[in-house]
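Tokens in:
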């Protein structure tokens, strides 16, 4: 959703490269999931495959995100669209993300607790208050608590 919206507005952004990398990361995630599903048959072999997939994703991830952040920085977004349009598009992106994020109790908690304060506030403003104020801190806490050492907040 973000790529089609941005193609006309940020023509210098390397969309083809980013789309190819996303596809490769998605394939690596699928292969990693398949390796996990094979654990019952032979724990050693799938574990080595999973490790290789995770390292490949790790090598790609930070450069990939770096390109996105370079082109989708807050200043550029502010220049690109009016605040009302920005809020509308952010809400649409948040909805699409949440519709495809499972399990919700881990994904929402991770997203909210692993962002710098200003980004977290922006994300919270696009989420239902029940999720932010009730679900994450209470009923979902038991599920996301093991991730706490890896979170910013």
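Residues out:
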């Amino acid at each position: 959703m973000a790529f089609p919206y941005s193609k006309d507005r940020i023509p210098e952004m390397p969309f083809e490269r980013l789309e190819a990398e996303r596809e490769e990361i998605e394939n690596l995630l699928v292969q990693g999931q398949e390796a996990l599903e094979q654990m019952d048959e032979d724990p050693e072999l799938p574990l080595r495959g999973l490790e290789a997939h995770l390292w490949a994703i790790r090598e790609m991830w930070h450069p990939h995100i770096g390109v996105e952040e370079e082109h989708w920085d807050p200043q550029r977004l502010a220049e690109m669209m009016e605040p009302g349009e920005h809020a509308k598009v952010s809400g649409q992106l948040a909805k699409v993300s949440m519709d495809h994020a499972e399990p919700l109790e881990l994904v929402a908690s991770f997203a909210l607790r692993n962002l710098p304060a200003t980004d977290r506030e922006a994300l919270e403003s696009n989420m239902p208050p029940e999720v932010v104020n009730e679900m994450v801190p209470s009923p979902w806490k038991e599920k996301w608590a093991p991730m706490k050492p890896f979170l910013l907040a």
